[in-house]
Amino acid sequence: MLYYSVVFLVIALIAALFDFGGIAAGAVEIANILFFLFAIMALGSFLIGLIKKN
Predict the structure, then answer these.
(1) Nearest-CA neighbor of 36 among 47, 24, 44?
(2) pLDDT given at position 46
Protein backbone atom coordinates (compact mmCIF):
# COMPACT_ATOMS: atom_id res chain seq x y z
CA MET A 1 0.00 0.00 0.00
CA LEU A 2 2.88 2.32 0.75
CA TYR A 3 4.28 1.48 -2.68
CA TYR A 4 1.08 2.67 -4.37
CA SER A 5 1.13 5.83 -2.32
CA VAL A 6 4.61 6.62 -3.61
CA VAL A 7 3.56 5.75 -7.18
CA PHE A 8 0.64 8.19 -7.04
CA LEU A 9 2.93 10.84 -5.54
CA VAL A 10 5.36 10.43 -8.44
CA ILE A 11 2.46 10.62 -10.90
CA ALA A 12 1.33 13.84 -9.20
CA LEU A 13 4.82 15.33 -9.43
CA ILE A 14 5.12 14.48 -13.12
CA ALA A 15 1.62 15.84 -13.83
CA ALA A 16 2.45 19.05 -11.97
CA LEU A 17 5.68 19.36 -13.92
CA PHE A 18 3.71 19.28 -17.19
CA ASP A 19 1.06 21.66 -15.78
CA PHE A 20 -1.83 19.20 -15.46
CA GLY A 21 -3.25 20.67 -12.25
CA GLY A 22 -6.41 18.58 -12.01
CA ILE A 23 -4.65 15.27 -12.50
CA ALA A 24 -1.91 16.28 -10.06
CA ALA A 25 -4.45 17.26 -7.40
CA GLY A 26 -6.32 13.98 -7.81
CA ALA A 27 -3.15 11.92 -7.60
CA VAL A 28 -2.05 13.79 -4.47
CA GLU A 29 -5.40 13.11 -2.81
CA ILE A 30 -5.17 9.40 -3.64
CA ALA A 31 -1.58 9.24 -2.37
CA ASN A 32 -2.61 11.03 0.83
CA ILE A 33 -5.51 8.64 1.49
CA LEU A 34 -3.36 5.57 0.82
CA PHE A 35 -0.59 6.84 3.08
CA PHE A 36 -2.90 7.49 6.02
CA LEU A 37 -4.64 4.15 5.48
CA PHE A 38 -1.22 2.48 5.55
CA ALA A 39 -0.24 4.37 8.72
CA ILE A 40 -3.47 3.38 10.51
CA MET A 41 -3.10 -0.26 9.50
CA ALA A 42 0.56 -0.34 10.54
CA LEU A 43 -0.24 1.19 13.93
CA GLY A 44 -3.12 -1.25 14.44
CA SER A 45 -0.91 -4.19 13.55
CA PHE A 46 1.75 -2.96 15.96
CA LEU A 47 -0.76 -2.59 18.80
CA ILE A 48 -2.31 -6.01 18.16
CA GLY A 49 1.17 -7.54 18.18
CA LEU A 50 1.90 -5.91 21.55
CA ILE A 51 -1.39 -7.12 23.02
CA LYS A 52 -0.93 -10.70 21.80
CA LYS A 53 2.63 -10.82 23.12
CA ASN A 54 1.51 -10.25 26.72
Answers:
(1) 44
(2) 96
Amino acid at 48: I
- For 15-25, how does the pLDDT look when each residue is reduced to its tens digit (9 = 90+)? 999 999 899 99
In this structure, are residues 1 and 30 in contact, taking their beta carbons and an 8 Å threshold? Answer: no
Domain ranges within the chain, ordered by starting residue: 2-53
DSSP state of 19: T
Q: What is the dihedral of CA 26, 28, 34, 38, to 10 degrees?
A: -170
What does the alpha-carbon distance between residue 51 and residue 53 come to, in Å, rounded to a whole number? Answer: 5
Helices (H) and strands (E) in the chain, counts: 2, 0
